[in-house]
Write a structure and sequence with these properties.
The protein is α/β, with parallel strands linked by helices. The protein contains 5 helices and 7 strands; from the N terminus they run E-E-H-E-H-E-H-E-H-E-E-H. The strands form 2 sheets. Strands 5-4-3-6-7 form a 5-stranded mixed beta sheet, sandwiched between helices. Strands 1-2 form a two-stranded antiparallel ribbon.
C-alpha cells in the first residue's frame, strides 16, 4: 500500500476540456462512466508510447460497448491540438471509447494535480507520472496503478470489471 491509498474516494474537481474530435468533455459528461486515465503528450519519445500500448490492451479487452471510458490527458496543450491528438489516437488504434483530452494548461494542471494527484510537469519540462488512475461512476478516485508495468494490466482489467458491476 503506498501513500495514494489515502486519496481513494476523493472526488475530482470540475474541469472543461476538449477531446480529439473537438467535443467538449467535462466531469458531468463522464459521470455514470467508469474510467481509467493517464497523462501523456503526442511528441513524447518514450514512456507515453509504452503507456499507450498498455491502455490499448485494456481498450481491446473490453471489446463490447459498455460504460468504460479510457481518458488520456495531454500535458502539452500548446502542441497537442485536437487534430494532433486524433492522429495520435489513430496510431494507437484507439476505439471510440478512448478520449484524448486537451484544453487550457490551467484546466489540465488542475485536473492532474488537484484531481488525479499526478504531476503534470511544466511548459518548460514535459514530465509526468506513469500512473494509471481508476475513477468510478461518481467521479471518485478508486485506484492507482503503475502504468509502465505490463504485469499490472490484468489487475487493472479486474478492477475495471469490478467497478463496471457497481450501480
Amino acid at each position: 500500500q503506498d501513500s495514494s491509498s489515502q486519496l481513494l474516494g476523493k472526488t475530482l474537481p470540475p474541469f472543461d476540456l476538449t477531446d480529439q474530435n473537438q467535443n467538449p468533455v467535462n466531469l458531468d459528461s463522464l459521470r455514470g462512466k467508469v474510467w481509467v486515465t493517464n497523462l501523456m503528450f503526442a511528441t513524447c519519445p518514450g514512456i507515453c508510447l509504452q503507456l499507450g500500448k498498455h491502455m490499448q490492451k485494456i481498450d481491446a479487452h473490453f471489446s463490447k460497448p459498455n460504460d468504460l471510458r479510457i481518458v488520456s490527458l495531454s500535458i502539452n496543450p500548446e502542441n497537442d491540438t485536437p487534430a494532433v491528438l486524433k492522429e495520435y489516437a489513430q496510431k494507437l488504434n484507439a476505439s471510440p471509447r478512448w478520449l484524448f483530452l486537451t484544453g487550457s494548461r490551467d484546466q489540465i494542471v488542475k485536473l492532474a494535480n488537484q484531481g488525479l494527484f499526478l504531476s503534470a510537469g511544466t511548459p518548460e519540462v514535459l514530465t509526468h507520472s506513469e500512473k494509471f488512475v481508476l475513477i468510478d461512476r461518481k467521479g471518485a478516485l478508486r485506484g492507482f496503478f503503475d502504468g509502465e508495468n505490463p504485469k499490472n494490466i490484468p489487475t487493472i482489467i479486474a478492477a475495471i470489471e469490478k467497478l463496471l458491476q457497481e450501480p
